[in-house]
Amino acid sequence: MPDTLLALNGLDAHYGDFQALFGVDMEVHAGEVISIIGANGAGKTTLMRSITGLMRNTAEQINHLGQPIGRLRADQVAHRGIAMVPEGRQLFPSLSIEENLLVGGKVGRTGPWSLSKVYDMFPILAERKGQKSMSLSGGQQQMVAIGRALMANPDLILFDEISLGLAPVVISDIYKALPDIIGEGMTAMLVEQDISRALQVSSRVYCLQEGRVSLEGRTGDVSRDDITAAYFGVTT
Amino acid sequence: MMEWTNAIVQGVLLGGLYALFAAGLSLIFGVMRLVNIAHGDLIVLAAYFGLTTSVMLGVHPFAALMVVVPLMAGLGYVLQRGLLNRTLGDDILPPLLVTFGLSVIIQNALLESYSSDPQKLSGGAIETASLQIGGLALGVLPLLTFGIAVVVIALLQWIFYATSLGRGFRAVSDNQDIAQIMGFNKAHVFGLAMALALAVTAIAGILLGIRTSFDPSVGGGRLIFGFEAVIIGGLGNLWGTLAGGVILGVAQTIGAKIDPGWQLLAGHIVFLIVLAVRPNGLFPRVDH
């Protein structure tokens, strides 16, 4: 398929002797929003670390735009246009808000996103751009983390647990902004514990269970029972 | 009274040299949590490079900086990427052991090439020139050294807080994984940090070599002074490092004023007192 942006071909991942992913196959097409769900320890974070290059894999196990990238370093992957909003925000504490955003733009890819565009989207960040990132509320920090990833003008953006640890009203705001973000021709992968939110915004879903894909399908086609079975490994 | 004032002023100026010893140490510890045991020997190495350059080209040691600064910076980059990056990880012991080994290697290589005879860089008239200020005779060289230290620290401060290179240093220092996801090649950033640190070391080495004689064994002492200045001033704070150098220098000259044998001891005692009372140093960096 020509429009395959990212393909995982039998992806394995190990931490020492412990194997976290077993032969994961996935295909992400340009313009899609995919959600990855699964219980704690199912391998979602490992999957993100593998795609971004923080964990090395064999080259052919991850393909981006038809080229093997499994062995690339994280910074090389970043330059190819894959960005991530990491779990727990992980802003740079010694950098100001604006500096955090500028670091995100370090890869120097051209595209719709710039400092002023991010400030248009999150005006509160413009007001506080000189402050240290840790002085912000959790929701505002999440805006910085999202803005920082957008500054790279990626063609694929990974969202790792963006609702974790945030107040429900803040989560609603962020999910409300999501279509605007992804609307700029970007492809997104969403790792999420909050299944109903994930399903609302995505077109396809993969469920991981103990390092294997236990379910995949269009969000409209999978039933609640399918998901429960795939999530917990319960056979009914 | 004038004698004491003189001792304090001389100590302040001496502190500039110590701050130059310390700045490189502080910088690499800040960026990559690497404690470089070979730092003092690299200062001495730079002094020998200065000696060879000024003798071979027949130029003043200050002109030799044009050669030695880029040479040490290049050496720093290669050293970091070829060797030291491989020692960095969760365990703090490997970099300590490897830089200790490097220290032994540098000392012996210098012994082989230059012998153990003391050497000195010849600074010419500047070595003995002095200015009369308010009844004090201030050496031009110590004044110049202090001025250079202030300029170097200000420059490092500017690089750290006002350039994209410095932003990269701070980002990698904060969170290596996330900085890599943002497109920073950690190995390269660390290489640049070491290059910058050893460029400062080159300046320190040449000023040291003009001020006093040196031989391959004096690196350890320079390392201690550098460490003490960093710890007194507070880790990760460059202006604090300058203050730490000044405090150490003043302690030494006042110690020497009381009894010439007390010069080094007085510096160490002040260091130990600061370490006991303010383990984070007098001016620790406040980020969070």
UniProtKB/TrEMBL annotation, chain A:
Belongs to the ABC transporter superfamily. Keywords: Amino-acid transport, ATP-binding, Nucleotide-binding, Transport. This is Amino acid/amide ABC transporter ATP-binding protein 2 (HAAT family). It comes from the Bacteria. The keyword Transmembrane does not apply. Residues 6-235 form the ABC transporter domain. It comes from Yoonia maricola. PROSITE patterns: ABC_TRANSPORTER_1 (PS00211), ABC_TRANSPORTER_2 (PS50893). One of its GO terms (molecular function) is ATP hydrolysis activity. CDD domains: ABC_TM1139_LivF_branched. One of its GO terms (biological process) is L-amino acid transport.
From TrEMBL, chain B:
Coiled coil: none annotated. Its main location: membrane. The keyword Disulfide bond does not apply. The keyword DNA repair does not apply. Pfam families: BPD_transp_2. GO terms for biological process: amino acid transport. This is Amino acid/amide ABC transporter membrane protein 1 (HAAT family). It comes from Yoonia maricola.
